[in-house]
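ok, trying the design again with the full structure, not the truncated one.
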């Protein structure tokens, strides 16, 4: 069993990006990320802070647009339009969730595909579906980078993904399919979940329920990737019961220190990509 060290891997990616950014700046290109945060969601505030910190560390310019809970859809779209127009902004990120009553899909649709560093615009998702070059949403992209770094070949493997969200489960399944894995996507209506997960060579948990995946759901020797971030008073926990599952696996990611840091690193990667493409 080997624990995949997402923290170390993300550090390595950030160090390489830092050099890239220095070169870009020497050529007068200044990557800049704009983050829109609507409302007072506490977890979102934590995520936004970590994105700000990562930008500062790498020398990526950063602008935060804070909007109150009562923001209208018209105002949000107007702000996105302005950011789309601005030459100094390389990438735009709308932090989810946004308050009820606002249509996040319409907002994602409005972000220019050339600045869609989160990969949530339907054009980006469509391109991913067609296996064309695009901005890939950061969590699934980071997981693929983990597979590459640890020489985990996904070709022909049976990958089971628990969770079908637009930001994790669905894009994850598309990337794996593009890399020749065989995919099963499970969700809350899936019957006989355990029978399916036990067939997985690669099991990806993106559910949002602490320790949902237990040892009896995992095949001996499987690769287990834990996307879950469950905040409790006792700390942060993944969707996988790590201590009991780990000895059955060939590779496993911890929480914290697994997928989370990779997500932020891939966001930085996408901002740099956007800045280069804008040249
Ligand atoms: P969502 O709530 O959007 O999706 C959860 C998915 O889990 C849904 O598809 C849901 O099914 C499925 N699900 C819920 N209960 C069950 C069940 N009993 N059996 C099978 N499937 C079930 O969550 P996200 O995809 O946004 O996030 C998932 C987790 O990953 C969260 O903990 C989140 O905090 C974390 N996360 C971590 C990131 C990182 O960087 N590490 C980045 C993004 C998210 P259904 O569709 O039927 O409702």
């Amino acid at each position: 069993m080997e624990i995949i060290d997402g923290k170390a891997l993300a550090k390595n990616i950030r160090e390489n990006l830092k050099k890239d950014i220095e070169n870009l700046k020497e050529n007068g290109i200044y990557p800049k990320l704009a983050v829109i945060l609507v409302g007072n969601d506490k977890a979102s505030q934590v995520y936004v802070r970590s994105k700000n910190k990562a930008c500062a560390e790498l020398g990526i310019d950063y602008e935060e647009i804070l909007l109150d809970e009562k923001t209208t859809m018209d105002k949000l779209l107007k702000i996105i339009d302005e950011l789309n127009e601005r030459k100094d902004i390389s990438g735009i990120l709308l932090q989810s969730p946004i308050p009820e009553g606002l249509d996040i899909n319409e907002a994602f649709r409005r972000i220019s595909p050339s600045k869609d560093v989160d990969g949530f615009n339907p054009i980006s998702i469509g391109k991913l579906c067609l296996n064309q070059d695009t901005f890939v949403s950061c969590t699934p992209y980071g997981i693929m980078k983990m597979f590459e770094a640890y020489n985990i070949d996904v070709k022909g493997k049976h990958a089971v993904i628990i969770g079908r969200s637009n930001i994790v489960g669905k894009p994850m399944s598309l990337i794996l399919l593009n890399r020749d894995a065989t995919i099963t996507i499970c969700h809350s209506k899936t019957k006989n979940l355990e029978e399916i997960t036990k067939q997985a060579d690669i099991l990806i948990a993106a559910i949002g329920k602490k320790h949902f995946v237990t040892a009896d759901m995992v095949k001996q020797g499987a690769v287990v990737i834990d996307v879950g971030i469950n905040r409790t008073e006792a700390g942060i926990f993944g969707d996988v019961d790590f201590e009991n599952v780990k000895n059955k696996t060939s590779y496993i990611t911890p929480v914290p220190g697994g997928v989370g840091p990779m997500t932020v690193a891939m966001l930085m990667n996408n901002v740099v990509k956007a800045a280069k493409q804008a040249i």
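Keeping the full-length input from now on. The radius of gyration is 19 Å.
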